[in-house]
Design a protein that fits this description.
49% strand, alpha+beta, 18% helix, 95 residues, seven-stranded antiparallel beta sheet
Length: 95
């Protein structure tokens, strides 16, 4: 089980890579009764250098839609003026 990660910036896919899934506490994508989220340390290593601090500032906070979606999102913001830098979308792949 892993996550396909896509970094979106201004509506365009800026970067994409794959990371392992980890069990989460409560929020995440549920599979067989357990929530899963992307491994944060692998996401941090996979991001381009200038997005890493923004990911650290985000918590990282993964947002899951309340529907039956298999995607979680993390928004990135610039520290100086709180301008949006992009969004990380992570889709759970069960294979």
């Amino acid at each position: 089980m892993h996550f396909d990660i896509k970094l979106h910036r201004h509506g365009v896919i800026y970067d994409q890579f794959t990371v392992k899934a980890r069990k989460a506490g409560l929020v995440g994508i549920y599979h067989d009764g357990a929530p899963y989220l992307p491994d944060d340390s692998q996401v941090l290593r996979g991001l381009p250098y200038r997005f890493r601090r923004a990911f650290d500032r985000a918590g990282p906070s993964w947002w899951a839609d309340m529907g039956l979606s298999d995607v979680v999102r993390c928004d990135l913001w610039r520290k100086a003026d709180n301008a949006p830098m992009g969004s990380i979308l992570a889709r759970l792949v069960l294979a």
